[in-house]
Amino acid sequence: MGFISQVINGLGLGSIYALVALGYSMVYGIVQLINFAHGDIIMVGAYAMFLLLTLAGAPLWAAVLGSILFCVVAGVFIERVAYRRLINMKAPRISLLITAIGVSIFLQNLSQLLFTSSGRTIPSMFDLGTLEAGSLQVPSGSIINILTSVAMMVGLSFLVNKTKIGKAMRATSEDADAARLMGINTNHSIAFTFGLGSGLAAVGAVLYCNTYPMITPYMGGLLGLKAFVAAVLGGIGSIPGAMLGGYVLGVAESLTKGYISSSFTDAVVFGILILVLLVRPAGLLGRNVSEKV
Amino acid sequence: MGAMLSVQDLVVNYGSIRAIKGISFEVNQGEIVTLIGANGAGKTTTLHAISGLVKTKSGSVSFCDHDLLSTEPHKILGLGMAHVPEGRRVFSRMTVMENLQMGAYIRNDASGISEDYDMVFERLPRLKERRKQAAGTLSGGEQQMLAIGRALMGRPKMLLLDEPSMGLSPLLVGEIFKIISDVNESGVTVLLVEQNAKKALEIADRAYVLETGKIVMSGDTLELADNEEVRKAYLGG
């Protein structure tokens, strides 16, 4: 397979990381929480797809929409039940982090209880075979992933920069008390951010299931961790950074698979993380902010 | 009708430290009232308590007959009280224009909002030149103007100003105080917290002197400015 196909496949995989990384980054931006339960939202989305397609026999479009909607609700619900009280009492970050790990363990075990730990297979979704242009061959899935992620990014930029709720989100993430003085209900901004991040993760889940139709209760673990690496790589808190980090990671993984060995991919991914943390701890597009005292 | 803002026996604790030890004061419609005192006297804490940003231990705060202590912070602007916090607290990564939009966040009257942009730009022409710039790139004085402009976008009946002169050159301090007087003359009641007692006494109608969480003196600004103790402690003799 040629170099260009490798890169395109890498971008396709990176699109999934990017969509999930956005949720990590936005949530961190607004409440300084590394939401370790975010990866498990991918699993929630994947099982929602599975149930809707197989048990409910829903058409594909309805399953996709239903799964995204379910994740949005789940994200908002988790924020309300697990995090809000801690956020409002200005609890130390470590308490939030531990709570997030707890939510992650809860979701994985709940899913194991409901669906057993053996994997399930999602029926095939959008399969347009392999696309060819001259000597270039790429699976259609990669192209779908790239186009979807770019469309999501454009939509998200518009939402965050131009709409009232998007601006309220940015104001809250910069200075929550000042935002309150402007009459912004910061609880709503935060809930909105969780819902938005979870919805984007669900889109990632749909794309993931399209490429890798095998789902398990623990699928969110490594996938979430890699998306987190992508968010840190790009500069956590930065939306374009999360996208860039996702793509870089995907391409690095794909090239490693193609030219070195597929068993090295994780080593390369986490190697990149270590390198970035050493050389540019704020990430590729991150801001260097000094801690307020 | 009684005072516009009435604070009675307010007590605020920070952990085991009693920051505000039962203070009472009033602000009547149309006035500029200033709360002066040294660093750490509890001025900012008092304003934060009024705006609901810190929890109070006891006492009452009523604004236009609403009990503020049982009002969520984000609903207070809707009652007509805007708070310009200490250190400006503009949204530095957002543009000047976006900051003003945030000030009008609770309003839905598009035409009224656009009139008020013009009003703010007329009052604070420097902001107009810089409206597409990120607020973080403005100078201290411009940020203070933006913070005031942002508060005015909520069309408040009353403005709480926390140390607007902090860190500004004497020339800019004069300019900011002129703006405050103008805003007051346009019908907005002002509660001004200041360390710069001299300037604050010049523009205010009445003043309260706060020392370590207690009000130790109060009265008309002319009388206070003549008072021996005030002169010694706050006006440099």
UniProtKB/TrEMBL annotation, chain A:
Q: How does it sit in the membrane?
A: Multi-pass membrane protein
Q: Which GO terms describe its biological process?
A: D-alanine transmembrane transport; L-alanine transport; L-isoleucine import across plasma membrane
Major localization listed first in the record, in broad terms: membrane
UniProt keyword list? Amino-acid transport, Cell inner membrane, Cell membrane, Membrane, Transmembrane, Transmembrane helix, Transport
Look up the domain of life of the source: Bacteria
What are its GO cellular component terms? plasma membrane
A Pfam match: BPD_transp_2
Enumerate the PANTHER family for this protein.
BRANCHED-CHAIN AMINO ACID TRANSPORT SYSTEM PERMEASE PROTEIN LIVH, HIGH-AFFINITY BRANCHED-CHAIN AMINO ACID TRANSPORT SYSTEM PERMEASE PROTEIN LIVH
Membership in a protein family = Belongs to the binding-protein-dependent transport system permease family. LivHM subfamily.
* Name of the protein this chain belongs to: Branched-chain amino acid ABC transporter permease
Q: Which organism is it from?
A: Faecalispora sporosphaeroides
Phylogenetic lineage: Bacteria, Bacillati, Bacillota, Clostridia, Eubacteriales
From TrEMBL, chain B:
What SUPFAM superfamilies does the database record attribute to this sequence? Answer: P-loop containing nucleoside triphosphate hydrolases
Keyword annotations for this protein, in alphabetical order, are: Amino-acid transport, ATP-binding, Nucleotide-binding, Transport
Domain of life of the organism in this record? Answer: Bacteria
Keyword Transport included in the entry's annotation: yes
Q: Which residues form the ABC transporter domain?
A: 5-237
Which InterPro entries does UniProt cross-reference here?
AAA+_ATPase (IPR003593), ABC_branched_ATPase_LivF/BraG (IPR030660), ABC_transporter-like_ATP-bd (IPR003439), ABC_transporter-like_CS (IPR017871), BCAA_Transport_ATP-bd_LivF (IPR052156), P-loop_NTPase (IPR027417)
Q: Which family does it belong to?
A: Belongs to the ABC transporter superfamily.
Output the PANTHER family linked to this UniProt entry: HIGH-AFFINITY BRANCHED-CHAIN AMINO ACID TRANSPORT ATP-BINDING PROTEIN LIVF
What's the protein name?
A: ABC transporter ATP-binding protein
